[in-house]
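Late entry, written up from scratch paper. The run itself happened at the end of the previous shift, but nothing got recorded in the book at the time, so transcribing now.
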Amino acid sequence: MQAGKLRVLLGQGFAIVGAAMLVSGCVSASTTPNSTPTMTPTPVPVLGKLTLAHFPSDYNGEQALWLCEGWAGLRGQYVTEVEKDTPYQLDVWFSGPAWTPLFGYANSLEHDIAYPRLTLAFGQATDPMFASIANARGLDHSCAGVY
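Output as recorded:
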């Protein structure tokens, strides 16, 4: 099974478990101070403006923020690449040095029930078979804290 498909399947499983735990009261909203974004994303044609959410000031909150800030810096190029590249070319691009830290942040969040939507959206947007403008918008929404 391709790594991207496995990430999507795992992300969907974590999203279901996380949602069930949230609904059942097993977890609660964080009361820790928020990590403030250190950048203002540039609007991108097709995707528009991105506003980054404030994440909890803990290790995973910072990882989520860094993932979203990294995404904010790559989304303009993402639109161009998705519109012109084959899945193979996208796979090569996603394997490049600009994406390496983002995959690291996403991997560190995979088991945190606070971020199932973010990790799922990232997995869908960066899977060469599923990379699309629609999935980029889904990642934008997750980074903005819109669910």
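Residues 3-144 form one domain.
(Scratch paper discarded after transcription.)
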